[in-house]
Structure prediction request, 116 residues.
Amino acid sequence: MKLLIVAGTRKEIEPLEEYLLEEDKKRKFCNHAIELMITGPGSTFTAYHLGKILPADNWDLAINFGICGSFKSELQIGTTVNVQMDIFGDLGAEDDNDFLDLFKLKLLGLNDFPFE
Prediction:
């Protein structure tokens, strides 16, 4: 299996990087080829770099590691979560203590592209 592990910053992936890497950016673990990629913080950097690397090779699995900018203060850094609902945190506005997504702002309908 060829696995791509992505993180926005080195700090988010540092323990794994120290465990896997000795001399280069590619490593085999349990017969799986693993490559680590640091994209830069935020979805824009991640989308740009993934847009370049994903079509250039045949990946079996890509996993994004990181703190992911949660708005929930009860989620401590290092907590593993299973994301069941996601909101584009950089597509909206903040209003005092609330985040207003594009739907709450009535800038986009729930069934509009790309959410259709």
User: Anything to note?
Assistant: The first strand starts at residue 2 and ends at 7. Residues 70 and 86 are 10 Å apart (CA to CA). The two ends are 32 Å apart (CA to CA).
